[in-house]
Amino acid sequence: MSASRPDSRPGDVLDRIAAVVTSASAQPVALPPTSADLPLRSLGLDSSSFIAVMSGIEEEFGIEWDDDVPSSTFDSLQSVASYLATRFGVGT
Amino acid sequence: MSTATLDLDFRYEDRPAVPVGDGVELYCELRGDGPTITTVNNFFLVAPMWRGFTAQLAERNRILSYDLRNQGASSEVPDSGWDDHLADLRGMLDALAIERTYLVGTSVSTLLCRDFALAYPERVAGLVLVGPAFSPYGGRHRRAVNRSWETTLREAGTAALWDHLYSLVLSDTMMERGGTPAYLGLREAFVALLSPQAALDNLRTAMQADDDPALLGQLGCPVLLLVGDNDFMWSPSGVADAASLIPQCRVLELPGIGHLPYWEATEAFEGAVQSFVEDCEAGR
Questions:
Q1: Which residue is closest to B182 within chain A, CA to CA?
Q2: How far is CA B182 from CA A16, A47, A49, A83, B269, in A?
Q3: Which end of chain B is more exposed for a tag (fewer CB within 10 A), N or C?
Q4: Chain-centre distance for alpha carbon B51
Q5: What is the predicted ipTM?
């Protein structure tokens, strides 16, 4: 469930998620400047990179995922940001 | 017992496809030198994953991994049947000039390996059957599982199928160790990898396999039965009963391991296969 003190700094949430994705990948990932709607599943990440993305977002924003997060949450950087805002108040 | 890193490599290498007949081409990876060990995917694995499961084996053997038709980077061929996979395997071995090989099957592909060994005994040096989908009692369990996966995929989609598989195929310790990030990350990897239509076609094809336990008794080559004792399809008595049906069978049960020993206990898996191959080669 949610951690007690989720990060709520506004403004740069998308950039921070993009940085997590980039650093989590075992292979270089070049995200285009307008990557908010880019499908995360199109980046060719392997399983450990996907897991690292999940853990990295937890660490970056001080939240904890739960098993009920729908798969659609990870359709794009924007959908991740929207979920973090709605569920944890990140960036609001 | 579990030593898994949760790392599954899906990255394809730039390799020429191997023509196997009738316009079908298969993606193949061939590494190492020595006795040939061919890995036969089940319908949820792809060839690149075997790099991580056979790195030690590749130091002393020649490892052949390939994608089945309608899977990964191999040809898509609508309306394919069970026997097409057997013909593809023979065509691939012919194309690569491999006269004889050990076959490693997992889950439903243990039935492909069984049928290939029965159809072409001169091509098979031995079978490694890992977390088999067959039963010594008949096929109702396997078909019920297969049908439930097909229904889940068709009615609820790929992420729901992952939920179904996750709850069955991983051991308790693997699930606990990975926690929520592993559950979510593996789910996304699974959704990214799986073509729903191809998976549906493959699950339907799997229903064509013959589940007659007597077929196990017709195997003429050495067999290694490798089963995790946390495998949802097996019990100790079931393993013993299966082994009693197979003429030249040795058994290795891995404690605390589920349906995917090559992933959860890669070191033990590779060690068992190496010992099996060495013993078979010494006995030839």
A1: A51
A2: 21, 9, 10, 19, 22
A3: C
A4: 14
A5: 0.85
